[in-house]
Design a protein that fits this description.
Blueprint lengths: L11 H13 L4 H7 L3 H4 L1 E4 L2 E4 L7 H13 L2 H10 L25 E2 L2 E2 L1 H19 L13 E5 L6 H9 L8 E5 L4 H8 L7 E6 L6 H15 L7 H4 E5 L2 H7 L6 E3 L16 H7 L1 H20 L6 H14 L5 E7 L6 H13 L17 E3 L11 H6 L6 E8 L5 H20 L3 H6 L7 H4 L7 E8 L2 H22 L10 H15 L9 H13 L1
Parallel strand pairs: 5-6, 5-7, 7-8, 8-9, 10-11, 10-12, 12-13
Antiparallel strand pairs: 1-2, 2-13, 3-4
Helix pairs in contact: 1-4, 4-14, 7-12, 7-15, 12-13, 13-20, 14-20, 15-20
Bound molecules: 6-O-phosphono-beta-D-fructofuranose (F6P).
The site of 6-O-phosphono-beta-D-fructofuranose (F6P) has 14 residues, from loops.
Length: 540
């Protein structure tokens, strides 16, 4: 069954939230902390190895209750069961949304068109495991009999960002294989990657759900050509594997049928790292760690599916986002991981969140008259403290920030870890409390500098403190954000699982490419585009 179509702004709770917003919008959070000694405890969720403190947000208990009322009014519960049960909730593409099935236990039953997909998922998992072990243990070798040393993932968007982010995040757990990612159609990108590679010892994993993506096919073709300059034709079967739903196109590209890892159209590209799209993850950290990542995600799935909304981490995270986006009219959210390992996390989430919820037509096909998808950005702390934190602290904008930290370091350098975590905690403290005029004067600031040294504070943050960065905890964290996206989409009454907005640019690029390739410009363009095209053609 389809998701319900309820315009959130027509609900009673929305109206109440609007009134309530006017009462609380100017209150400083410090006041609420002073009034209620239990605030931090009440607004913290402890779950497994996660400690989620959302008390430093511009909310009261009433805000929370109204947001929870909103979740009930749009029937989030019903939506969650449709999501997990494989209903066609991706209506515009006529598909179920079942990345959660990819990490479900073997005993689960998830029906798509009346058929349980779990056995098929496990048979592909078995193939990933077998292949990973044979490559890692050098049972499978390159065309000259040498063990593989390098793996190149060729893909873009969801076929790149998820695997690239996880491989980077789990680099502590990596084996001897060096993993590279080629995504951009920029030829310099692919040439930079292959220039130092030895074709005899490199495995290429072409990942494309559709196997029609210009960037991926161009890169794969360039790499195969480069490979065949050194290797014989029959070596392709040993060095190229593919992950796709489009088996025919993969075969037409020349990939051996045994080297194809299938995936399914009920897995969206940006949610696909749990499928064979994660093959480079498995190759990089071993199948067991890949499986632990999946197990962690499954734990978060269960939490999301079964926990009451007031203690449900993705639900609270999604509701807070709606609160800022639709009532404070805040446009962006920052993701600040306090670990260099999560360097690519915000970039990865940009696709997950912005490709999903960047929509302006509601589920009834009507234009929307309220804000939807938030702009996501961020960089690890402490680096970001020395880059853009000035604006968060003293700028004119409210930027809700999610601080993600890990209590234990992986290499055990306690001195650094204590410094890192003290910064992690200090920043949210500073953003909450700021620094008053009195404090600035008491510190002896020259009178004329006093206004510049005042920090207003009252800047919202949520702290997610996790015991340690492991494959399992990373799986939980990614799954948390996947469900946050879902909660937002349900409330905003949009379809989160299509991405028609990326098509127009692709179409026009094809037309422009034709105009570049041909002698004459035949397609119609606006004056600015035409000038650019002529200028480029004259240069080349
Ligand atoms: O950017 C659009 C998009 O369709 C993404 O949703 C997807 O992850 C990416 O392109 C790559 O697509 P494919 O895996 O089919 O090559």
């Amino acid at each position: 069954m389809a998701l319900k179509t309820i315009n959130p702004t027509t609900t009673k709770s929305w109206k109440k939230l609007e009134e309530h917003f006017n009462n609380v919008k100017d209150v400083h959070m410090k006041q609420w902390f002073a009034q209620d000694a239990e605030r931090a405890n009440k607004m913290t969720i402890k779950w497994e190895d996660f400690y989620v403190d959302y008390s430093k947000n511009r909310i009261t208990e009433e805000t929370l209750n109204l947001l929870l009322e909103l979740a009930n009014e749009v029937d989030l519960k019903d939506a969650i069961s449709k999501y997990f049960e494989g209903d066609i909730i991706n209506e515009t593409e006529g598909r179920a949304v079942l990345h959660t099935a990819l990490r479900a236990p073997k005993t689960a039953e998830v029906l798509v068109d009346g058929e349980n997909v779990i056995p098929e998922i496990y048979s592909v998992k078995e193939k990933i495991k077998d292949f990973t072990n044979k490559i890692v243990n050098a049972e499978l070798k390159g065309y000259t009999g040498k063990a593989f040393t390098d793996v190149v993932n060729i893909g873009i968007g969801g076929s790149d960002l998820g695997p690239a982010m996880v491989v980077d995040s789990l680099s502590y757990y990596k084996n001897h294989l060096k993993t590279h990612f080629v995504s951009n159609v920029d030829g310099d990108h692919v040439n930079e990657v292959i220039k130092n590679l030895n074709p005899e010892t490199t495995l290429f994993v072409i990942v494309s759900k559709t196997f029609t993506t210009q960037e991926t096919l161009s890169n794969a073709t360039t790499i195969r050509k480069w490979f065949l300059e050194k290797a014989p034709d029959n070596a392709v079967a040993k060095h190229f594997v593919a992950v796709s739903t489009n088996i025919e196109k993969v075969k037409a590209f020349g990939i051996d049928e045994n080297n194809i890892f299938p995936m399914w159209n009920w897995v969206g590209g940006r949610f696909s790292l749990w499928s064979a799209v994660g093959l480079s993850i498995s190759l990089s950290v071993g199948f067991e760690n890949f499986d632990k990542l999946l197990q962690g995600a499954h734990k978060m799935d269960e939490h999301f599916k079964t926990e009451d909304f007031d203690k449900n981490i993705p639900v609270i995270a999604g509701l807070l986002s709606v609160w800022y986006n639709n009532f404070f009219n805040v446009e962006t959210e920052a993701i600040i991981p306090y670990t260099q390992y999560l360097n690519q996390f915000a970039t990865y989430l940009q696709q997950g969140i912005m490709e999903s919820n960047g929509k302006s037509i509601d589920r009834s096909g009507e234009p929307i008259n309220y804000q939807t998808g938030t702009i996501i950005w961020g960089e690890p702390g402490t680096n970001s403290q020395h880059a853009f934190f000035q604006l968060i602290h003293q700028g004119t904008k409210i930027i809700p920030a999610e601080f993600i930290g890990f209590a234990k370091s992986l290499h055990g350098n306690q001195d650094h870890q204590d410094k890192l975590i003290s910064n992690f905690i200090a920043q949210t403290e500073a953003l909450l409390n700021g620094k008053s005029k009195e404090q600035v004067i008491a510190e002896g600031a020259p009178e004329k500098l006093v206004p510049f040294k005042i920090f207003e504070g009252n800047k919202p943050t949520t702290t997610i403190l996790i015991n340690q960065l492991t494959p399992e905890s990373l799986g939980k964290l990614i799954s948390l954000y996947e469900h946050k996206i879902f909660v937002q989409g349900v409330i905003w009454n949009i379809f989160s699982y299509d991405q028609f907005g990326v098509e127009l640019g692709k179409q026009l690029a094809n037309a422009i490419l034709k105009d570049i390739d041909e002698k004459e410009i035949v397609n119609k363009h606006d004056a600015s585009t035409l000038n650019l095209l002529k200028f480029y053609k004259n240069l080349t």
